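Bench notes, afternoon.
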Amino acid sequence: MIPEKFKNYYMGTNNLFFPEYEFVIKLSFPSVFVRFKRTEGYYTNFNKFFNSVAEVQYLDGIKPSKIEEQQILNEIWDFLTLTKSPNKGNFLGNRNKPD
């Protein structure tokens, strides 16, 4: 069963201008846009993804506190895992593991 918290998360592409990128948008407050290169994003761990692969933008113009930001990034990682992983259940909770 898909958790209710993901109902405001969406995956997308812009094949005309950014064909090599995918993005995640979280529409509920605080709204977040995360863009990443498809080829790099699927073969990395949580820390590398958010430190060097993904571009994170807060659409409301307000960056949340560190605790709230960590929760949002965790949810985005879990959403990506559910969306892209063939063995989705194996990865939830597996963020912050060393390289």
